[in-house]
Specification:
Elements lengths: L5 E5 L2 E5 L1 H26 L15
Antiparallel strand pairs: 1-2
């Protein structure tokens, strides 16, 4: 366990998720949201803005 790691606990035990994995999963969630909103903007004919710009994987 290191500073920055994610810790999840319940009655059955504890799970430690390395900080790198937490960051990767958060990026994937954000990317999925960005892609869904981008498709929505395109269907509505709305101009694309900074919130729907696609980014390269940081790893």
């Amino acid at each position: 366990m290191r500073p920055g790691d994610g810790i999840i606990a319940d009655d059955d035990g504890i799970v430690v998720i390395p900080q790198e994995e937490v960051a990767r999963r958060a990026w994937l969630v954000q990317d999925k949201d960005r892609r869904m909103r981008r498709a929505f903007y395109e269907r509505l004919g709305m101009p694309l803005d900074k919130t729907v710009e696609l980014e390269e994987h940081p790893w």
